[in-house]
TrEMBL record:
The lineage of its organism: Archaea, Methanobacteriati, Methanobacteriota, Stenosarchaea group, Halobacteria. GO terms for cellular component: plasma membrane. SUPFAM superfamilies: TrkA C-terminal domain-like. InterPro entries: Cit_transptr-like_dom, DASS-Related_Transporters, RCK_C, RCK_C_sf. This is SLC13 family permease.
Length: 627
C-alpha cells in the first residue's frame, strides 16, 4: 500500500510540474507498477504484467479512440464550422448575443462530439466573432471552454472522462452491486440542469468577472508589445551579408534575430524568402531586440531606418490575405516539448514566430531555446499558402478561420446518419421495444430484439468503419485523428486504479474520509468528494483524478451506508467540469493564449462557478438517485 501511495505521489508531482509529458508520466507509472508487481522484482503493487498492460485493451481506451476518430469525421464535413458562421451572423455586435451564440452552440454539440475537438474547431470561429463584433476575445473564449464542459455532461460520449468513469464503475460493480456502466443518457437530466445553470452564470455574472486582456481593435503588434523588437534596417554596401541568402544570413548572425521581410525597389517579399539573395540597398524588416540591433550596426552590417509599428506595415499591400496569425499548440502536436530551434518550425512552414504566450507570460526574446508547452500560442508571420497549411494540420489550431475552407459538406448527411446510428443502437431500449411489438403483433420472436443493444465500444468502432466506407474520412486520416497522448494516458493510469484497490489503499483512504461521517451527513460527505475531485483535477489530468478518486469514493459510500452510485456520479461530474485552472482541462489550455488570459482569470471566474455547480450537482444527484 505504501509503495502504491509513493507511486501516486510521484505521479502527482510529475503531472503538476510537467517535467515529463503527461502521457510519458502515465507509461512510467505503468512500468513501475509492473516492475514492483506480481511478475516483477518484488510483489509490492500486486499488479501482474497482464493487469499492467490491461489499459491498452480496456473498453474505455478503445471507445475514446473510436470517438476521437468519429469527432474528426464530423469536423471534416464542416458542419460545426457552418453552424459557427450562422452563430456569427446572429451575434453581431451585441455581447449578450455573442455569449448566447457561443454557449448555445458549443454546449449542445459537445454532448455528441467529444468536447475537446469542438473547442479546437470553434476557437477561430469565436475569435472572428469577437473581432467582427468589436468585442474583446477575452470575453468569449473562457465561456466557450466552460460551455463545452457543461455540454460534455449531457451524454456518455461527451468527454473521455465519462467513458473512463463508466468503465471503472462497471469494474467496481463486481464488488458493489449498486454500480454499473453508464447508459448513453444515464445522467442527461442532471447534465441539462448543469448546462442551464452554468450558462445563466456565464451570461449574467461570469463575463463581468472577465477582464479585457485583449483590447478591442488592438492589432497584434500592440497586443504582444513587440514594437520595440521590430526594426527596419538598410543593408550597407560593404555589409558581409551582401550576396548571402536570407537563410545563410540568419545562420551567420549569432544573435536572437529573424528577417521577416525583404523590401526591394518598393516591392515587399515575405516568407518563403530563405533562398532570396540579399543585395546592397535592400531594406530588411527584422525581429530583434535592441542590443542585437546595436551589435549589427556596430559591425557595419546594417543601417537603422525606423521600424514597423502596426500589423498593416507587416502585411504587404499587394497581398489581400492576412500574413499574421495566432497559432495554438494543442496536445499531441509535434511542437510540444520541442523548442523553435529543434522543431525546425521555420523550415517546415516557411514561417517566422514573432512572439508567443506561454502560461500567461508573453515571450519576445530568446524564443529559440524555450520549450513549447501545450496551450502555448505563437504569433506567426507567414505567406498565405503557409497559413493555409498550418490551418489544415492537426498539430495546430489557427485562431482565424480560413476564407475558403476545404470541407466535405456533401458528406454531412452521411456523418449525421452514422453518429445517429452510433448513439441510437446504444440508447434505444431494444428489449422493451421488442416486447411491445411482440405483444401487438403476436410474433414472439420479436422479444429477441434485446440482442440489438450493443456496447458503445462496438457501435463506435462500427461508426469508424462506416465513416471510412462512406468517404467521410480517408483511411490515412483515422490515425491523425487520434490524440495518442490521451490514449497512452488512459492506458497508463488505469492500472494505477487497480493497484489502489488491490493493495487496500482505496479502503484505507475511504475509511479516513468516512470518518467525516461522524460530523457530516451523507450529503455533506458527497459534497466534500465533489470539491476534492475538482481541486485535484485543477492540477492533474481529469482522467487521472477519476481513476484515483472513484475507488476511494465508492469505499467511503460503502462505509457510511450511502449509495455508491451517487458518489461515482459526483466524482465524474467534478472531474469533467474543472474550471479553476487553465491546466486542469485541455479546453482551458486551448483558449488560454488567444484570450490573453492570466492564471488568476480562471480562478476569478471558475471558483464561484465551481462552488455554485457543486451545490447544484450534489442536490441533483440526491434528488434523482438518492443517497
Amino acid at each position: 500500500m505504501l509503495v502504491v501511495f509513493a507511486i501516486i505521489l510521484l505521479a502527482l508531482v510529475l503531472f503538476i510540474t510537467e517535467w515529463l509529458p503527461i502521457d510519458v508520466t502515465a507509461i512510467l507509472i505503468m512500468v513501475l507498477l509492473m516492475i514492483l508487481g506480481a511478475d516483477g522484482v518484488a510483489n509490492f503493487t500486486e499488479i501482474s504484467t497482464t493487469e499492467g498492460t490491461s489499459g491498452f485493451s480496456n473498453s474505455a481506451t478503445i471507445t475514446v479512440l473510436a470517438m476521437l476518430i468519429l469527432s474528426s469525421g464530423i469536423s471534416q464535413t464542416g458542419v460545426v464550422q457552418i453552424i459557427g458562421r450562422k452563430m456569427s451572423a446572429f451575434a453581431g455586435e451585441d455581447l449578450d448575443k455573442q455569449l448566447l451564440a457561443t454557449i448555445g452552440v458549443s454546449g449542445p454539440i459537445s454532448g455528441f462530439i467529444n468536447n475537446t475537438p469542438v473547442v479546437a474547431i470553434l476557437v477561430p470561429v469565436v475569435s472572428d466573432i469577437a473581432h467582427k463584433g468589436k468585442t474583446s476575445p477575452s470575453k468569449l473564449l473562457i465561456p466557450l471552454s466552460y460551455a463545452s464542459m457543461f455540454g460534455g455532461m449531457l451524454t456518455l460520449i461527451g468527454t473521455s472522462t465519462n467513458i473512463l468513469a463508466s468503465d471503472v464503475s462497471a469494474r467496481l460493480g463486481a464488488e458493489y452491486p449498486e454500480l454499473h456502466a453508464f447508459s448513453m443518457f444515464e445522467f442527461t437530466k442532471l447534465g441539462v440542469i448543469v448546462l442551464l445553470v452554468g450558462s445563466l452564470y456565464l451570461m449574467t455574472v461570469g463575463h463581468r468577472l472577465l477582464p479585457e486582456r485583449v483590447p478591442v481593435d488592438e492589432d497584434y503588434v500592440t497586443e504582444y508589445a513587440i514594437g520595440e523588437y521590430l526594426t527596419e534596417a538598410i543593408v550597407d554596401e560593404g555589409s558581409p551579408i551582401v550576396g548571402s541568402t536570407v537563410a545563410d544570413a540568419i545562420d551567420r548572425v549569432e544573435f536572437d534575430a529573424d528577417i521577416l521581410q525583404v523590401v526591394r525597389d518598393g516591392e515587399e517579399f515575405i516568407e518563403p524568402i530563405g533562398q532570396k539573395t540579399i543585395r546592397a540597398g535592400d531594406t530588411l524588416r527584422l525581429r530583434a531586440d535592441r542590443p542585437t540591433v546595436q551589435q549589427l550596426v556596430e559591425r557595419e552590417t546594417l543601417t537603422i531606418d525606423g521600424g514597423p509599428e502596426t500589423d498593416a506595415e507587416l502585411e504587404p499591400e499587394d497581398i489581400s490575405d492576412r500574413t499574421l496569425v495566432e497559432v495554438v499548440v494543442p496536445r499531441g502536436s509535434f511542437l510540444v516539448g520541442e523548442s523553435l530551434e529543434t522543431s525546425t518550425f521555420r523550415q517546415r512552414y516557411d514561417a517566422t514566430v514573432l512572439a508567443f504566450r506561454s502560461r500567461g507570460e508573453t515571450v519576445r526574446s530568446d524564443m529559440d531555446e524555450r520549450r513549447i508547452r501545450v496551450g502555448d500560442t505563437l504569433l506567426v508571420q507567414a505567406a498565405p499558402d503557409s497559413i493555409d497549411r498550418l490551418s489544415q494540420n492537426d498539430d495546430f489550431i489557427v485562431a482565424h478561420e480560413p476564407d475558403e475552407p476545404d470541407y466535405r459538406t456533401e458528406k454531412i448527411p452521411h456523418a449525421a446518419a452514422i453518429m445517429a446510428g452510433v448513439v441510437g443502437f446504444v440508447a434505444v431500449p431494444w428489449g422493451a421495444v421488442g416486447t411491445a411489438l411482440a405483444g401487438v403483433t403476436g410474433v414472439a420472436a420479436l422479444e429477441s430484439m434485446s440482442a440489438l443493444s450493443l456496447p458503445i465500444m462496438v457501435t463506435a468502432l462500427a461508426g469508424v468503419v462506416a465513416m471510412v466506407a462512406s468517404g467521410v474520412l480517408k483511411p490515412t486520416e483515422i490515425y491523425d485523428a487520434v490524440e495518442w497522448d490521451v490514449i497512452f494516458l488512459l492506458a497508463g493510469i488505469i492500472p494505477l486504479g487497480i493497484a489502489l484497490e488491490q493493495t487496500g489503499g482505496a479502503d484505507l483512504l475511504g475509511s479516513l474520509v468516512a470518518s467525516t461521517g461522524a460530523y457530516l451527513p451523507a450529503l455533506g460527505v458527497l459534497w466534500v468528494f465533489y470539491l476534492a475531485t475538482g481541486l485535484i483535477t485543477g492540477v492533474i489530468s481529469n482522467n487521472a483524478s477519476v481513476v484515483l478518486m472513484l475507488p476511494v469514493a465508492v469505499e467511503t459510500a460503502s462505509q457510511i451506508g450511502a449509495n455508491p452510485f451517487a458518489f461515482v456520479l459526483a466524482v465524474t461530474f467534478a472531474a469533467s467540469t474543472a474550471f479553476l485552472t487553465p491546466v486542469g482541462y485541455q479546453t482551458n489550455l486551448f483558449v488560454y493564449g488567444p484570450g490573453g488570459y492570466k492564471f488568476m482569470d480562471f480562478v476569478r471566474v471558475g471558483a464561484p462557478l465551481q462552488f455554485l455547480l457543486s451545490i447544484v450537482t450534489v442536490l441533483g444527484i440526491n434528488f434523482f438517485w438518492g443517497l
